[in-house]
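hi support,

uploading two proteins for the ticket. first:
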Amino acid sequence: MMKISKTLITTLQQLIDGESIAYSTLRKDFAETLLAEGLLTVQTHGSRRTFRAIDTIALKNFIQIHYEELRTLGDNDLKSYATRSEQAAETGNSKLVMVRSCPGFPVNSYEPITCSLSGNEFVINPPESSFVFIDNWQQFAIPERVIVVGIENMENFRMIRHQRKLFESVLGDVPLLFVSRYPQSKDLRNWLMGIPNKYVHFGDFDLAGIHIFLTEFYKYLGNRSEFLVPSDIEQRLAKGSPVRYNKQHGKYCALRTDIQYLQLLIDLINKYHRGYDQEGYID
């Protein structure tokens, strides 16, 4: 269990509330992660530096999704929450590690896919602007010819029909089942490890996005997984944003891989000193 101090909880709560905090106040590992994700900005006041959240709602959602011990941060009374953290640190009986009331992951498709859920036939065909949440993922099975496409961003996940040309241009005319990495847990990865289907990861075209693919998916799925790279990605990167690249470079400057096509993408990102968000592919 990650050690969560009262000071850290108070500091994160201040950021969620829209306040600025002293640069030295935020624990280094949290600062590096939140900066790399583009959730914090550094403000300079003479020789003094402070952190401030770029988007307080996005910050709160990221913290709650990625840190089980902080799952309810921002939703509960801060004083009582901090007290529970101190008790956990002292006794080892953590009330901060929440029981997951909704395991599983969301799925989507733009054409009907006949699957099996709990031994029964189940057709995935949600109308536009909706998706299906699979709870009993241990008994969820799909045809082997279906390619699973993992999508990082929820906006892209909801609007798959607006990206159909992209998927068909890269993957061809094959049945696709789209899955979302959020809410982040090991359920999706464990399910992928238990099925034979090909997995394609569609994330942001930046160093952090590639790192996520390599460490959270390729590490476990091997050559059965690949990173989706559109044919026009160099043109897109050339006019992408340098902000995300500059924030991520310190942490991921040494990122390398022996996967040739992916190393070429890394080289392009470093060549242009820019990243490109996957939302740009929504028509």
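and the second one:
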Amino acid sequence: MINVEAVYWLIGALFIAWASLIARDENHPHRVGASSFWGLLGLCFFYGTWVTAGTAPAWVLGVAVLVLVALAATGRLKHGRARTSSPAERVQSAAKFGNRLFIPALAIPVVTVILVLAAPVLTVGKTPILDPKNTTLVALAIGAIVAAVLAVVLLKPKNKLNPIIESRRILESIGWAALLPQMLSTLGILFTKAGVGTAVGTLATAVMPKGSLIAGVIVYCLGMFIFTILMGNGFAAFPIMTAAIGWPVLVQQFHGNPAIVFAIGMLAGFCGTLCTPMAANFNLVPSALLEMKNKYGVITAQVGTAIPLLVVNTALMYFLAF
């Protein structure tokens, strides 16, 4: 069976491969710091297997995270300038292959969906081939591998390792922000365990007008928006604001429909996603991939949509959930 640990080991191997390329790049401005950062991160993916199995102490990962933070905070991740092609060569290649360039990219969702749908019948004996608990993640990893192979077959680069070399360049362009989604998700769990939601609820109910439904809806939606901006992840903000306002006030006190309240609450949080650099995978990665002069250009373009959409979501919750 292909389980999720195999995916983590593949990711770890990629980080170590990128660290090796950086370490060998004599023109890299901070090759020791950068290779150490990505190499240590790769080793964490391997070590995590034993932590999950309970055969290794988790505090080692905590120390590793602190080392990663120190390396990033001291500016040791300035990226190199390694490229596999010049701008003129990329323009020529785009003209030659045209829309066929989309085939590898489209292969990822297509393969993922096919494998997820076919997973129940993909068995050897009675043992499933794909991990039943993490089918989507395993299928996504297989889809990415298929896409990389298709890209090499289609483009026929002189160096078959170009996917790894180019992905290293993109990774370094993004830098430490590539880890923000994982870090912020963990932060959301810590906030919930620490009772931040309860504390926020106490403060909010103290300032809200008693018995005011519209005030409760506004505080919940605006809180989801603000916490998502701060944490970069609507899923991390959701348990905090739901524990504070969503469940005790909107559902229990005003008898709102839970499905509608929480669904629209998440949409209000996603409005915050459009406005924050903390959501690196949505707002900083595209800027790096497109090599935009303004790395916050994506956010600037989205704010004009996010604010009106937040107002609309707030109105929808008020009129539909109660």
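thanks. also noticed: The chain is about 75% helix and 0% strand.
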